[in-house]
Amino acid sequence: MRIEVVGERTISQQARTYAEYRVFAALTQCTEADKVRRVRVLLRPVSRGSGCGDIACTVTVALDGPESFRIRTTGDHAYAAINRAVLSILIALPSSFWTPPGISRWSWSINDWRFASLLSCWSEA
Q1: Number of domains forming the structure of the chain
Q2: Domain that holds residue 109
Q3: What is the spatial distance between Cα 84 and Cα 76, in angstroms, rounded to a whole number?
Q4: Which of 84, 97, 109, 113 could, after both became Cys, cross-link 93 (CB 3.0–4.6 A)?
Q5: Angle 8-16-20 (CA atoms, 0-180°, nearest 5)?
Q6: What's the CATH code of the domain at 30?
Q7: Mean pLDDT for each consecutive 10-residue tract of the chain (125 residues)?
Q8: What phi and psi, each to the nearest 5 degrees, are found at residue 69?
Q9: Contact call for residues 37 and 2 (beta carbons, < 8 A)
Q10: Are 56 and 81 in contact (CB under 8 A)?
């Protein structure tokens, strides 16, 4: 799995490193992590129109074969946007990435401590 993090000058190196770590940590928890080929994270400031700025986090995940998906979230700061994007990635992944065959994704992962910790990180952002 190759992870590329791109950020404008206004995005700190620390935030870029955090994005790489969070995305890698989340994706390596799934049972089919070897099917993730490439991930691209783009962090950039966006304007809400009222003079206030947010940070947008766009994550593109390329899976084996022709499948890929893109997630875009925003937050008051880079860390909030990253945390929201990570949770969205986990929700967007096909259920086969998470569970052994025949087990519901939600019944398996909602009781999993890792999923609960992701939710708590997201709600703190």
Answers
A1: 1
A2: 2-124
A3: 11
A4: 97
A5: 135
A6: 3.30.160.100
A7: 89 93 86 84 82 83 85 92 89 68 48 48 46
A8: -150, 160
A9: yes
A10: yes
